[in-house]
Design brief:
Plasmid stability protein, elongated, single chain, mainly alpha
Length: 79
């Protein structure tokens, strides 16, 4: 059973302030979804993107990262 615009409007006036705000938020989200629909991702794209982030080398340990940062700061400020 669907409400007419006039019935919906009357019901909205009878809501509490917090319910009105929740209704406005729901309407805005609905409009955002309709106005800016997200196109579906091409098949296999997600797997390709994940593959780009993979590296063959093991992750550096904390001491190695600290050394890399020190080197970078020396290059930036001492040269």
């Amino acid at each position: 059973m669907s409400m007419s615009w006039q019935e919906l409007r009357k019901e909205a006036y009878d809501l509490s302030v917090s319910d009105k705000l929740a209704l406005v938020e729901a309407i805005i989200r609905s409009l955002q979804n309709e106005l800016r629909p997200r196109p579906p991702l091409p098949e296999g794209l997600v797997n390709e993107m994940i593959g780009l982030a993979k590296i063959d080398a093991p992750s550096p340990i904390d001491a190695e990262v600290e050394g890399m940062l020190e080197e970078r700061l020396e290059e930036k400020y001492l040269k």
